[in-house]
What does this fold into?
Amino acid sequence: MASSVRLPTAERRLQIAEAVLRIMSAPGGRPFTVAALAEEVGVAEGTLFRHFKTKAEIVDAAIDLLAAALETSFPPAPAAGEQPEPLERLGTFVVQRLTLVRQRPEFLRLAFNDRLADAAGPDGAARIESIIGRSVQFIRDCMTEAQERGDVDADVSAMILVWMVIGVIRGASMPTSNPGTPAGVLPATSPEDIWADFERYLRGGRHGRKNAS
It folds into this structure.
């Protein structure tokens, strides 16, 4: 049913962009159509195009929303004369990104499917690749610098370490499947504790494995 509530333009545009992301990330591949979007928002189809000129413009707004949300994970620029250690910067990123995707799991699902990119067309798809690539490059830069400092085993490929970080974020944001745990419940371990454990592994896990053998 269409909503009779008239919202300010900026608020309605945000609502529509949010609805795009929900549809695109929904399990089962829910079709992305104007009719489906209008139903998700709760408005008539014509209302969508009072706020956007085209369907492509709607998708662009959804990409803007995704980019702005993911950007909040990156640590702020250091003050003049300060340069946090690479694992400190990476820790800030991991904690903030994990907090975000636990609150907004659709962002993580969108990173692992092509639906938004397919709807966005070539230019939009390139934007999405750049948005995701920024996170990957940030992790890789931190890891490479940490290896150069001797904080992390330099014998391991930096990209392997990148995949490990992504895997930790993904795994720690998925509902648990342990026997006796209600379905859909997120792991109880906090993002801060998850990073603390992973940082210990990065800094000394290699030695722990050698001593255990």
About this structure: The domain at 9-65 is CATH 1.10.10 (Arc Repressor Mutant, subunit A). The radius of gyration is 20 Å.
